[in-house]
Write a structure and sequence with these properties.
Length: 404
Amino acid sequence: MLKDLQEIARKIAEYKLCDACLGRQFAKVEHGLTNVERGRKIRQILNLDRVDYKDCWLCEGLMGEIEKFAELVVEELKEYDFKTFLIGCKVDEEILMKERRIETEYSESIKRELNREIGKIVSKKLNKPADFKSPDIVAIVNTIYDFVELDIRPIFIYGRYKKLKRGIPQTKWYCRKCRGRGCEYCNYKGKMYEESVEELISKKALEMFDAKDEEFHGAGREDIDVLMLGNGRPFILEIKEPRKRNIKLDELQKLINEYAKGKVEVSDLRYASRHEIEKIKSAKYPKIYRVKIRFEENGKINEAVNALRGKIISQRTPKRVAHRRVDKIRYKKILDIYVEDLKMNEATIIVKAEAGTYIKELVTGDDGRTTPSLSELAGVKLEVESLDVIGIEEGDENEKVEGV
Ligand SMILES: [Zn+2]
Ligand SMILES: [Zn+2]
């Protein structure tokens, strides 16, 4: 040991430090030793007496409790499935202040040592590796009050859903009066609708992953009275604080489809990552719709449809959503449109339009807010009988159609 280091060590040792705390102040001087071993070596060189953990000026016994902290972590992790973990810790502010008083340029922090040493024991006991980049679980040891908090990485599942029954909202819709607590208005259910696509899909997932909460992220949404057919709408289901992690998704898919039979059907389930949420939420996929329209008097339906093909329409925010959307004019392209069926007082029309096109208003004109509209071009009043999404075109990201 160099002379000037010896001088520093002698000064620091005046504080009466346990071997771990003494050794830690010289952690960067030589590698391959634990701080306890390093402290013991320094003590021998300087011919100093050993200081018990509980008498240590700096840690006040903390470094003698590592085994106990590791036990707490192991106990807490018992109920969880995981492959990798990481340890974090909270240390008394007073200890951290003392640490700042004696630290040298060779010191390691007490937190770092605690994390590493607790981690080593946990890793050995559970036979699982620590992971510094993206652990399944972070166990945070509160060394002041002796408890462990877990931060559990959520699970993300990508899939596509079809909605086969009208009247089901995409997500849970809390009661607008009580906001979920339950009141007379909502019949003490806390929500406006009995079920939702979100709940129909997540119920079995929550059971299988043994989790309490989830969040549903859809690639856009259809109105409550609109069916979602064809290849289905992409979504990501986020499972929060799962106790189980390794679920076979084809089994989950089967269970969901049995449970939601006749209402919702899922396909293409696979594990995903958090960054895919943003991707599917911001994606501007063109959509294909089947619209059944009704009319009292015959108008020029065929001519109107032909005139709209490839046309850019102007849509001011519809009256029916004006209370929750900013009032502005959007320009949308009708990529394709044709008549599938035409009878006396009704017609079925297939429309492919840019993301965000209001299809009901494309038909009715919304009192002139959407123009041109089918009603306007046909010269008669048209009403929407039913509307289904029959396809979502998920082309190459670069090809996505932007609003004009
Ligand atoms: Zn100590
Ligand atoms: Zn209520």
